[in-house]
Amino acid sequence: MTTGAPCSGKRPIALVTGCARRVGRATTLALARAGFDIVGTYNTGADEADRLAPEVEAHGGTLDRHRMPLDDPESVRDWADSMRETLPRLDTLICNASVYEPTPLERITAEQAERFYRINAVSPLMLCAALAPVLRRSDRPGGGSIVAMSDIHAIGRPRAAHIAYAMSKAALTEMVRTLALSLAPDVRVNAVAPGVVAFPESGYESDAEMQARYLERVPLGRSGTVEEAANAVVWLALEATYTTGQILRVDGGRWLT
Q: What is the pLDDT of residues 42-65, one digit of tens each?
């Protein structure tokens, strides 16, 4: 499903996966404020994406919405191939969408682990591979850019109940480093690794007592915000013109404890 007018190419264009909710929504609005038109993808958030569109338009931009589930990497590659042929330009790709839920070791299945890998690692790779030729043509300062959403708990601060998620995000992180070499000097590739910038809305991590225990280990003493994570994404995408292959932690100091 596609809704919204196609981006004209008169403004720079960003593609944001998972545009409708949480960090993806905040990133979409931050890019619109920076003068971008947005191609935004969602899975189940069609209503949220529709409500987001007028907010993007209020900043002079367009939000071209596409339903694109990430659990079938071949379909994602086909979609990205078609976008490569039709987009007038592409200046930044934000690989934000992911799946997150606990997978206790005693109950984990191969299908669960493979699903995390398909959604969180393989589909982002397919997007990057298909769209790299368009990103290489960007005339933005510093060239085109890719920013992926990693996680501090997948780069050295593991959590026991989230092994499938952490493995998939660790793969995504290595994708960032490898693509930074493969696409230089035309495209910069970086990642943001948040701690908690928005607690889950359901499940055991939505419990206030659990959240308080987690925050006891955060030197800044609070959760981050989706806007703070989005600001880091936009900085890497647009302003960090001499930065590639880096993982920027946005965690209130949680990495230190």
A: 999 999 999 999 999 999 999 999
pLDDT tens track for 81-122? 999 999 999 999 999 999 998 899 999 999 999 999 999 999
Structure tokens at 237: 């995408």
Is pTM, for the whole model, over 0.70?
yes
Which residues share a beta bridge with 248? 192
Contact 127, 66 (CB under 8 A): no
Q: Give 181-192 pLDDT, tens digit per residue.
A: 999 999 999 999
Q: In this structure, what CATH number is given to the domain that contains residue 116?
A: 3.40.50.720
Query: Catalytic site residue 165?
Result: yes
How many domains is the chain partitioned into structurally?
1
Q: What's the chain look like in SS3?
A: CEECCCCCCCCCEEEECCCCCHHHHHHHHHHHHCCCEEEEEECCCHHHHHHHHHHHHCCCCCEEEEECCCCCHHHHHHHHHHHHHHCCCCCEEEECCCCCCCECHHHCCHHHHHHHHHHHHHHHHHHHHHHHHHHCCCCCCCCEEEEEECCHHHCCCCCCCEHHHHHHHHHHHHHHHHHHHHHCCCEEEEEEEECCCCCCCCCHHHCHHHHHHHHCCCCCCCCCCHHHHHHHHHHHHHHCCCCCCCEEEECCCHHHC
Q: Domain residues for 222?
A: 2-256
Task: Check 42, 100, 165, 204 and give the catalytic one.
Answer: 165
